[in-house]
Amino acid sequence: MVLVRQEIGDVLRDVRLQKAMTLRQVAGRASVALGYLSEVERGQKEASSEILASVADALDTPISAIMREVGERLAVLEGVDVDVVGMRPLVPDTLPDDLVAQFDAPLALR
Amino acid sequence: MVLVRQEIGDVLRDVRLQKAMTLRQVAGRASVALGYLSEVERGQKEASSEILASVADALDTPISAIMREVGERLAVLEGVDVDVVGMRPLVPDTLPDDLVAQFDAPLALR
After folding, report:
1. CATH class in words for B4-109
2. B14 interface with A at CB cutoff 8 Å
3. What is the CATH superfamily name and number for domain A1-110?
4. What does pTM read for this prediction?
5. Which of residues 50-79 of A touch B (CB under 8 A)?
6. pLDDT digit string, tens, across residues B71-88
């Protein structure tokens, strides 16, 4: 079973490390216990929405950026590359091979 | 404060309605109490990762699709540029103030 809290924890830790912050710094700024934040990062505790907002704020990162990254990582885990909710078609950020081939080809062959 | 559970609830309800399913049907398939699912949809209760997985399964929708949509809606609420090209906005696309300040400063002050 793919667990959302595991990905949330991974993303929070990755963002923290990317910003070269310690658990203690983030916990202090977010006013959460260090041990609790550590458990959240390891996917062992569910963080409430209020705590997620505080931690995102402590990381100077929009909560939307964190949740988008969580969604992308879950998609990789699930092997999904299409937004099946269907409200916003996801466009892959790689170009289709045939399109690339077209522009690699000499003009005369297009 | 932007709350993740509010957006999760909205997306779960929207997906359910899109699939023309009733609360009772989804609650039954997910083995969760109807009243509880209703509270989750209204953003009044935090759903555990296990319950989110069960509800997503009951909706025949990957949890990644739900969380991606949550991320997009949070981005709109936060006024963060919507990720229309499927990039992975782990890093906000604004530069940190201190970095900007560094490059705004005359060379001698760097």
Report:
1. mainly alpha
2. yes
3. lambda repressor-like DNA-binding domains (1.10.260.40)
4. 0.75
5. 50, 52-53, 60-65, 67-72, 74-75, 77-78
6. 999 999 998 865 544 444
